[in-house]
Amino acid sequence: MNMKLLGIILALCCWTLSGDPAEFETFDEAFLICETPVWEITNKADWEYTKWGMTPQQVVSASNNLATQGSDLRPDSDGNVTKLVAPYQRGKFSFEAQFGFDVADRLASVTLVLNDKSAGMDMDADTNMAHGACYDLLVSVNTAYGPPQGGGSAHMQYSIETWQDQTNKNKITYTVLDGVGCYVQYSAFKSAAAD
Fold first, then answer.
1. Does residue 147 contact residue 110 with C-beta atoms inside 8 Å?
2. What does the radius of gyration of the chain's CA atoms come to, in whole angstroms?
3. How far apart (Å, rounded) are the C-alpha atoms in residues 91 and 75?
4. Phi/psi at 55 (nearest 5 deg)?
């Protein structure tokens, strides 16, 4: 099915590139797909333009050299080190994408830290989040993945929600830190045997 669709799109691209320019707008989307190298269409990424297990050099290349060396090389709670960072825009949200590498120097997580000076949220005694950029981000993640499937940890200082993206085999974690900000982390599913 995918190869048949790809063939149709390629045929349309060839026709529009050499055919009637008046019809070109009708095939705008097909043309954009045709401008994308075929390997990018057939090789599905784990997070945007990256695949789990990439080396730092591969991530830099995949990011079109937007990824640069990170400044905080301390391991996170999973033991991953943020060796690279890059700007990332998704809809109305602007992030710093932090690429976490495991002890084997392979990409293990991508953390999207919301770039918003007002993103630090105050959580009141009932642990209800004030409406703001972090709340909007949580609503956006809920829209994309449905109700949280885990986490639900809400304390006076932080809140964590988790999802399992079965389609892309990713674990998604949303975290908000009171007065600091919020982030969304993507990582590969870990098998039960690995836990």
1. no
2. 20
3. 30
4. -85, 165
